[in-house]
């Protein structure tokens, strides 16, 4: 009988490993991790909407912008100047409210028509971000106020903090905030998928007619999925703003929405773990290629014109190729691929002979033997 690590022990070991990087890695790697955690939160939300509920959305960047700019304006000057923690909460709710305003459309159209409708949100939002200078700062964007909780600042401008001889700057402090938000995202999303709402959304994705026969309120659940996905995107936008420390309109464009679709396709539609894996891959790849561009063939160093492909473009080519390979050979994404590999590596259960059966079962087996 093979021994397996209990789920609780595995979760504790994973948590300990994720808490260790601030003590060993420099600021670059911590920033990569922060961007990946923020992307994972947004990808989980889009996975619920597209992978579980079956609703195509190309407007995810709009809701990230609502969360990022909502926090920046609510906590900053000019603006209400609210406590940063309250501003972050209100920014997430504001993104959910934006999703709620759009939910009547999401409740009535589907497929490519919903994708085109959400695409309009990206262009409309980008126009507003460029023209509403008093709120967004226009083309140059705005600096992001630091988050404080109970007097503790998540920026390097606060009181100096040293843990086990390691000075904790902004990246180290935000690392644990990102971990807490990602853990909360996992817990809520997995609970939703395993509960009645998740089963209703899955039934809705597979067949609206069958879901309606089973008593699922189609318009209500489709609208609710859009609101929940928007709130996850708003939370990701807040964390992205804190990690970037400055928000600019050009970041929240159509390219970002396409990146999020790539995340959930590569990771696996309808999977929380898959969305997280896809987010890490799509987010970290261009950053790593930029850092090591001088060591990679056919990749141009940023700021030079040596005839190679820029690291950002090269990264997009690579994960574009990854999408093609996933669709051809692993339609259920990295999560499904890992699950199949684990199933093949798991030792087969031994065949049960009459001697290995309980006494009553062995007697019955002998009675039925000709």
Automatic annotation (TrEMBL):
<feature type="transmembrane region" description="Helical">
    <location>
        <begin position="29"/>
        <end position="49"/>
    </location>
</feature>
<dbReference type="GO" id="GO:0015658">
    <property type="term" value="F:branched-chain amino acid transmembrane transporter activity"/>
</dbReference>
<dbReference type="GO" id="GO:0005886">
    <property type="term" value="C:plasma membrane"/>
</dbReference>
<dbReference type="InterPro" id="IPR001851">
    <property type="entry name" value="ABC_transp_permease"/>
</dbReference>
<feature type="transmembrane region" description="Helical">
    <location>
        <begin position="56"/>
        <end position="74"/>
    </location>
</feature>
<keyword id="KW-0812">Transmembrane</keyword>
<keyword id="KW-0472">Membrane</keyword>
<keyword id="KW-1133">Transmembrane helix</keyword>
<feature type="transmembrane region" description="Helical">
    <location>
        <begin position="112"/>
        <end position="130"/>
    </location>
</feature>
<feature type="region of interest" description="Disordered">
    <location>
        <begin position="349"/>
        <end position="370"/>
    </location>
</feature>
<feature type="transmembrane region" description="Helical">
    <location>
        <begin position="260"/>
        <end position="288"/>
    </location>
</feature>
<keyword id="KW-1003">Cell membrane</keyword>
<feature type="transmembrane region" description="Helical">
    <location>
        <begin position="174"/>
        <end position="193"/>
    </location>
</feature>
<protein>
    <submittedName>
        <fullName>Branched-chain amino acid ABC transporter permease</fullName>
    </submittedName>
</protein>
<dbReference type="InterPro" id="IPR043428">
    <property type="entry name" value="LivM-like"/>
</dbReference>
<feature type="transmembrane region" description="Helical">
    <location>
        <begin position="224"/>
        <end position="248"/>
    </location>
</feature>
<feature type="transmembrane region" description="Helical">
    <location>
        <begin position="86"/>
        <end position="105"/>
    </location>
</feature>
<dbReference type="Pfam" id="PF02653">
    <property type="entry name" value="BPD_transp_2"/>
</dbReference>
């Amino acid at each position: 009988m093979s021994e397996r690590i209990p789920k609780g022990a595995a979760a504790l070991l994973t948590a300990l490993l994720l808490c260790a990087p601030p003590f060993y890695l420099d600021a670059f790697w911590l920033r990569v991790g922060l961007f990946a955690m923020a992307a994972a939160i947004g990808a989980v939300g889009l996975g619920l909407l597209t992978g579980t509920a079956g609703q195509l959305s190309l407007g995810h960047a709009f809701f990230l912008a609502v969360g990022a700019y909502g926090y920046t304006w609510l906590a900053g000057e000019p603006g209400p100047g609210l406590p940063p923690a309250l501003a972050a909460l209100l920014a997430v709710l504001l993104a959910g409210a934006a999703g709620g305003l759009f939910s009547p459309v999401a409740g009535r159209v589907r497929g490519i028509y919903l994708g085109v409708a959400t695409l309009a949100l990206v262009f409309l939002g980008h126009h507003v971000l460029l023209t509403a200078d008093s709120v967004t700062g226009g083309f140059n964007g705005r600096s992001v106020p630091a988050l404080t909780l109970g007097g503790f600042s998540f920026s390097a401008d606060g009181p100096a903090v040293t843990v086990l001889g390691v000075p904790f700057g902004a990246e180290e402090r935000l690392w644990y905030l990102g971990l807490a938000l990602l853990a909360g995202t996992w817990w809520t999303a997995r609970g939703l998928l395993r509960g009645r709402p998740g089963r209703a959304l899955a039934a809705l994705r597979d067949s609206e007619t069958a879901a309606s026969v089973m008593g699922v309120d189609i318009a209500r659940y489709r609208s609710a999925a859009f609101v929940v996905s928007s709130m996850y995107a708003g939370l990701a936008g807040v964390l992205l703003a804190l990690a970037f420390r400055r928000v600019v309109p050009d970041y929240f464009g159509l390219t970002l929405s396409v990146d999020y679709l790539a995340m959930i396709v590569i990771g696996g539609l309808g999977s929380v773990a898959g969305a997280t894996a896809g987010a890490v891959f799509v987010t970290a790849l261009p950053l790593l290629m930029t850092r090591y561009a001088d060591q990679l063939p056919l990749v141009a160093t940023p700021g030079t014109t040596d005839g190679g492909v820029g690291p950002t473009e090269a990264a997009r080519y690579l994960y574009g190729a990854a999408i093609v390979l996933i669709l051809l050979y692993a339609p259920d994404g990295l999560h499904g691929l890992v699950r199949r590999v684990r199933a093949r590596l798991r030792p087969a259960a031994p065949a049960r002979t009459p001697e290995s059966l309980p006494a009553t079962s062995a007697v019955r087996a002998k009675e039925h033997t000709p």
